[in-house]
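HUMAN: Spend a minute on the protein record below and explain its fold to me.
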Amino acid sequence: MAGKKVLLVYAHQEPKSFNGSMKQVAVEELSKQGCTVTVSDLYTMNFEPRATRNDVTGALSNPEVFKYGIEAYEAYKKKALTSDILEEQRKVQEADLVIFQFPLYWFSVPAILKGWMDRVLCQGFAFDVPGFYDSGFLKDKLALLSFTTGGTAEMYTKAGVNGDFRYFLWPLQISFGPEVSSEEQRKVMLASWVQRLKSIWKEEPIHCTPSWYFQG
């Protein structure tokens, strides 16, 4: 899909990791398609994960009692957020597709990626009230989670020790336990990821609250 823009938000400390390989093959495949790919390498950027009053460059609306959500909302409207937040918001705004590449930490994203979400996807930019989920400001963009686990696929089943992964995350592309997999198995995982990216623009988005997700 020549002309499409992709933002790849990457959260891993080691370039030689399997996550690093997932990131690299995604950049290569999407670039071959004619896409413009931008990578936010959060660890290399030393991205600040903490949401604090330092994110607001202007005067606070209520200096007596600091409420981050309210202050970030007001600062966004005044263009008074710090430059690192504004830069990431610009990348998101320009992207047709945002890919998050990360290892699963305690059934969630790494702290640095959670901080990116907390600071970048603020009210006014990503959503408002009302106006969230399927009616949020980013509703016309595509997003994809690509992550690795420390355990095997069997550990994330209904009968597995970690439980059914569908109940703690909507996983769109999982690479189960690359560290405990053979080199051949890791190659298959990478090939599967590349194959999916070849047809990524034809996929139907998943609705935020599909009824089938909570059945059975």
Summary: Residues 28 and 156 are 30 Å apart (CA to CA).
